[in-house]
Write a structure and sequence with these properties.
The complex is a heterodimer of chains A (548) and B (251).
Chain A lengths: L13 H16 L6 E6 L2 H17 L2 E8 L6 E10 L2 E13 L2 E10 L13 H12 L10 E6 L5 E11 L2 E8 L5 E6 L4 E8 L5 E9 L2 E3 L1 E2 L6 E5 L4 H8 L12 E2 L3 E2 L2 H21 L11 E5 L12 H8 L2 E3 L4 E4 L14 E2 L6 H15 L7 H22 L12 E2 L4 E2 L4 E2 L20 H5 L5 H12 L1 E2 L6 E2 L7 H15 L6 H16 L4 H12 L4
Parallel strand pairs in A: 4-6, 10-16, 14-17, 17-19
Antiparallel strand pairs in A: 1-5, 2-3, 3-4, 4-5, 6-7, 7-8, 8-9, 10-11, 11-12, 12-15, 13-14, 18-19, 20-22, 21-23, 24-25
Helix pairs in contact in A: 5-7, 7-8, 8-10, 8-11, 10-11, 10-13, 11-12, 12-13
Chain B lengths: L1 H20 L14 E9 L3 E11 L2 E11 L3 E12 L2 E22 L9 E25 L4 E25 L8 E26 L4 E18 L2 E19 L1
Antiparallel strand pairs in B: 1-4, 1-10, 2-3, 3-5, 4-5, 5-6, 6-7, 7-8, 8-9, 9-10
The chains are: A alpha+beta (548), B mainly beta (251).
The structure holds zinc ion (ZN).
């Protein structure tokens, strides 16, 4: 999709990358997870090192024994748990578990925070001040015996804060509050109430009724899927662009208050309904079609952010903000996806197209999650031909997810080879069936060789995407005039499996189109045999688009 | 249940013939001076398939549940009393009671938690208690066969009161990927309904003293009751063919 009124509308992270990459890089390095020294000692060598380290830290006060317990199942074993302390203050979440067999250490697991640079651990607030503040936050009446604990709180930004920790049950439910021990500011509120999986319903962007997997908390319902194995959460950014950007930069973390909420589990915000439902749909598609459990194959989280901006402010936004947060959807790494807000009904782009909430298109959602899969597999470099392959794989996943969940046809909620056609109307932004329809190349000779769009990653994506189409549907390439005998729509799964397996298992990060041809052919031969109709279709399709 | 019904009525034909041929030996005292009472241990010899449907709201849809039981083969306790009105004709009342815990085959269409209109099939079983109280009003025709043996043919309306345990909700084991679902247990409730039907049958009694005798009794009754469960009505056939023996006392 090359031409919208901003000239920067892409279904991809590249605009975002231009805007925020330096900030992201900095914040990533400072992630608190990097400050955790994770210990999993089981071999003799590691055990020797960590056993003496634990003893040393126990002596110098870095660790304090919390409990020692006999193993309920193995008679000679005992288990010790140590909490991490810093200058005499417990570090929240820092601990070590040591297993002993007749006094001999057999395993050490734990996580110890490093680089806690707090000079002074003397609180400004008294314990009574903290109690009063927590009472105010929770609305609960707290007795004098309620004593918040002074702790070191590791922050998402990688810093550490001296905090008071207290658990209180109030109108909003049961929360663990962390207050800055110097300023009294609320640093973190953790929902400590066990939640219950529920199924809600709502109306999507296109007016369709669908189920949403939510959970129930004291105050109502939230878009947290507890029925599928991974964490799938939809956040309602409520049009707060600054908060969205701060989260993406690691400056703030999102809390329970950011999760989309509803009082009766009948959801009326269509962008939220679709984002949350489609996160599950795509997980189901990957699982059922390819046996893949989520982005990393091990049920890693998916966080969908909707309403990153307020639609009504579009006229006052910069081109880059419009291109990124109105007319785009992008995968921001770590399972985080942001779905653009679209345009008000009375605003169209230069091609006179309307833009609805981007989360309303299943293929857009699947496309973005496809980038997540790539991140965890081939890591195709996001420029030039490897970048176009990266985009092509996402388009393929988007189209395949549509055909998996929707009946084939044209129009809303129908599966086709158009990308984003349900929310960018009329027409969508790309076509794998006829790339030329949007001015995109359908043949290698017509590829874009300039430097824009990271070397045409979105533009040239339609060349391998069209090969995918031809391998399924067959037909004649408009540029080369070469015909392909496709496997047929009824056998689309065969081509999907060939491309999925090639891209996730065998594709190198710097692959060219020619390499992609070889890899997909290898995949086809492995799955269906050298002489199979599938292998022939894949071969003919690449040849037809000029990739040899 | 149609075969026993037919055989019963063909039996009636035979009895009617007997009655006509034995007419000359009729003894009004066979009724007793005031009447008679009999206490009978019967057994249900036929079964009816009893299907009771219910519904459960689940995953924003409705689970359609059916409990199917074979009801009938069970002990029936019966007390019948009657007396003469005129000649061989009399009037009586019988009260029968049966109760049993029966295995019910549970089938249900369980909605998918993620998608509309993609139900999965659940098969399981549970135990549902069923009791039937039957009050038979009987017009009777008594025919002495010998001095000590007599036959009574009867028929009339029956009032049924049925107490049927129904399934209020299912407790299911249902986890990702939600392809299959299994039954853990059922939450049950009890419906009490009544209905009118008909009865007909005969007894043969043998008196070994003036007032005390034994008898064999065969009674068929039938009606249709409507059992409501979770707002769903199901029509079930009640009654059946009950046969057995008891003590008969004239007084
Ligand atoms: Zn993309």
């Amino acid at each position: 999709m090359r031409a919208s009124h901003t000239g920067s509308a892409r279904l991809g992270p590249w605009v975002f990358a231009l805007l925020l990459t330096p900030l992201l890089a900095d914040s990533a390095a400072a992630q608190s997870s990097d400050r955790v020294r994770r210990i999993a000692a089981q071999s003799i060598g590691e055990l020797r090192v960590w056993d003496s380290a634990v003893d040393r830290m126990d002596r110098d006060g870095t660790l304090r024994l919390r409990q020692r317990r006999a193993d309920a199942m193995l008679e000679s074993r005992t288990h010790e748990r140590f909490d991490q302390f810093y200058k005499g203050v417990r570090v929240h979440g820092g601990d070590i578990a040591r297993q002993m067999d007749d006094g001999l250490t057999t395993s050490v697991f734990g996580g110890i925070y490093e680089g806690i640079g707090l000079e002074d651990v003397t609180p400004v607030l008294s314990s009574a001040d903290a109690r009063a503040a927590i009472a105010g936050l929770s609305g609960a009446e707290l007795p004098d015996s309620f004593e918040p604990e002074l702790v070191i709180l590791p922050r998402d930004g990688g810093e550490f804060a001296l905090a008071y920790q207290g658990r209180a049950f109030g109108a909003e439910g049961l929360y663990i509050y962390f207050l800055d021990a110097r300023t009294g500011d609320l640093l973190l509120a953790l929902d400590d109430l066990k939640t219950q999986a529920t199924v809600g319903r709502g109306t999507g962007v296109l007016g369709d009724n669908k189920k949403v997997s939510t959970n129930r908390v004291a105050s109502g319902y939230r878009t947290e899927d507890e029925l599928r194995p991974p964490t799938l959460i939809t956040f309602d950014m409520k049009g707060n662009l600054a908060r969205t950007v701060n989260f993406l930069n690691g400056v703030v973390s999102l809390g329970v208050a950011d999760i989309a909420a509803d009082s009766d589990n009948t959801w009326s915000d269509p962008a939220i309904v679709d984002a949350h439902a489609y996160a599950g749909y795509v997980y189901d598609f990957l699982y059922r079609r390819f046996g893949r459990r989520g982005l990393d194959g091990s049920d890693s989280r998916v966080l969908a952010l909707v309403h990153p901006v307020d639609r009504s402010t579009v006229r006052s936004q910069s081109n880059s903000v419009v291109g990124t947060f109105f007319l785009n959807a992008f995968y921001a790494g770590g399972g985080v996806m942001v779905f653009g807000e679209g345009l008000p009904a009375d605003v169209v782009d230069v091609q006179r197209r309307n833009w609805n909430y981007l989360s309303g298109a299943l293929d857009v959602f699947a496309h973005e999650l496809g980038h997540g899969v790539t991140d965890f597999t081939s890591r195709l470099i996001y420029r030039n031909e490897s970048g176009a392959l990266n985009e092509a794989f996402s388009d393929i996943i988007g189209v395949a997810a549509e055909f998996y969940h929707q009946p084939a046809g044209s129009g809303a909620l129908r599966a086709d080879y158009l990308i984003a056609e349900d929310v960018v109307t009329p027409g969508g932004i790309r076509s794998l069936a006829n790339p030329q329809q949007f001015g995109d190349p359908d043949h290698y000779t017509a590829r874009y060789t300039g430097t824009q769009d990271n070397g045409g990653v979105h533009i040239n994506a339609t060349i391998p995407g069209h090969a995918f189409y031809l391998a399924i549907e067959g037909g004649t390439n408009r540029t080369s005039g070469l015909s392909v005998s496709g496997v047929g729509a009824a056998n689309r799964e065969q081509i999907e499996r060939v491309f999925y397996r090639a891209f996730t298992e065998m594709m190198p990060a710097n692959a060219t189109f020619a390499v992609a041809r070889t890899v997909t052919l290898q995949s086809a031969v492995d799955l269906y045999g050298a002489g199979s109709a599938v292998t022939r279709a894949v071969s003919e399709a690449w040849t037809a688009v000029g990739v040899n | 249940m149609r075969a026993p019904f037919r055989s019963l009525w063909s039996g009636f034909g035979l009895v009617a013939l007997l009655l006509v041929s034995s007419d000359a030996h009729a003894q009004p005292s066979a009724w007793g001076d005031n009447g008679y009472v009999s206490i009978n241990a019967l057994y249900g010899v036929t079964t009816e398939t009893n299907e009771v449907s219910s519904r459960q709201d689940l995953y924003q849809e409705t689970a359609e549940i059916t409990a199917r039981q074979e009801i009938g083969k069970r002990p029936v306790f019966d007390v019948t009393a009657g007396g003469r009105i005129k000649g061989r004709f009399g009037m009586g009342f019988g009260v029968s009671y049966a109760v049993a815990d029966d295995q019910a085959a549970v089938t249900a269409a369980i909605p998918n938690p993620f998608y509309f209109d993609r139900p999965r099939t659940l098969d399981g079983s549970t135990t549902l208690e069923r009791s039937d109280l039957m009050v038979h009003v009987q017009a009777m025709w008594l025919l002495p066969i010998t001095d000590t043996v007599q036959l009574t043919v009867f028929g009339g309306p029956t009032w049924f009161q049925v107490k049927q345990q129904t399934i209020e909700s299912l407790v299911i084991d249902d986890v990702f990927p939600f392809d299959t679902v299994s039954l853990v247990s059922t939450e049950r409730e009890r419906a009490t309904v009544s209905a009118w039907g008909v009865n007909g049958g005969f007894d043969v009694s043998y008196f070994f003293s003036k007032n005390v005798g034994v008898q064999g009794l065969v009674r068929y009754s039938r009606g249709t009751a409507t059992i409501g469960a979770t707002g769903v009505d199901s029509d079930v056939t009640v009654g059946g063919l009950h046969a057995g023996a008891g003590l008969r006392i004239r007084y």
